Amino acid sequence: MYKKLNPDRMKLKVLLFFVFLLVWIPPVVADDLESLLPAPTGRYKIATTKLFLVDSTRKETFVLGGKPRELYVKLWYPVASAEAANYDHFLGDFPSEVISGIFHDVGLDRELVGQVQKTITHSYSGAHTLYAEEAFPVVIFNPGFYFGMADFYTSIVENLASHGFVVCTLNHPFEQPYVEQTIRKSARLKRKKAQLAYLQLFLIEKFKRFDLETEEQVEAATRYNLRKLKRFDRVIRRWTLDNEVLIDYLKAVGGQADAPGILSQIDPQRLGVFGHSMGGAVAGQVSLQNPDRVKAGANLDCFQFGDLIDHPLEQPFMLMESEHYHLWNLGNSVVYSQVSAPFHKLTIKGARHFAFSDVSMLDLIEEKDKKKMIGDIDGAETLRLINAYLEDFFSHYLKDGAAVRIFDNFEDQQIKYKNILP
Prior knowledge:
By secondary structure, the chain is α/β, with parallel strands linked by helices.
């Protein structure tokens, strides 16, 4: 049985403080450097800023000292104009040794990371002008577990922001490589604890053999995984609470005249959530637990942990999958079989897990190493398709039924697309 929101408990959720500030990057003129990332397709310019929230109702369990849990949110949002083109550097907030330490096995060593970080994004910090009266829908994005870094999804969140969304990338301390904090210098990944979750998965794959000939056998295997992968389940529960802290804050201050910066121009009644890998499963659980607060959600390539197998979603949802892990895709066919709302499913032929990230654009990596991460696909074209579907999905469900262009009219041999309506 999943745990529903307790209104009394939510009232106790007090944010001790927040820091809302502009990210300052030394000025970079757009013509001086080329970006590795595709140009956003929307009409809006994009700016970034940082937000730190503290949940006083929870103590951080990963470190000693009993300090409350602090969350770091990076916001990407539409702006009317820029007074100075201070473009953000790609992965500029992350130490190079952190990135190379995570991805060294696929050829992204420290030297290559240095080259990557010299390039720029299509977002900027510094002086800019907000739109005067426009209220934007807001979408929360959760990066993946262990390997997840919010800025490794820059091309996806930039594209959404360029189409008139405020995108809040929510970082989860000690379970992602590097998370900025104000309470301490940074929250580094607790590798040994995180690896225990993968150990549980490895033991199941090594010693458990499933018969998958019938629908009943597939369901039995799915429920076995949900029951035995307890450490992944704990991640889902913890990150879901993180999302609810952010939703509480956005609901409290969003659209208020005295709210800081872009938060004065968001419409918290039009709120969506999505994520990649473990963050995608979190999007499903957050949607389930917040049917009156989350209007639409999307899971990018993760087995749907949590409680959806027994409690169908009430909101529109989209599942995007690679062909990386057949058993988990089969499991999703069981979990999402009882949806009671519009459900969209896409499978990208030949893709692997990191096709849903900026790795698709990193041509500095050896081709064989890149294929290990994204599959035997055209990375740039795949990312274009992912962005197009995400923008269309959230535009339709968060912008008062905006016309759906792609779902009804798009044909491509690279995509297996299924639109399931109740």
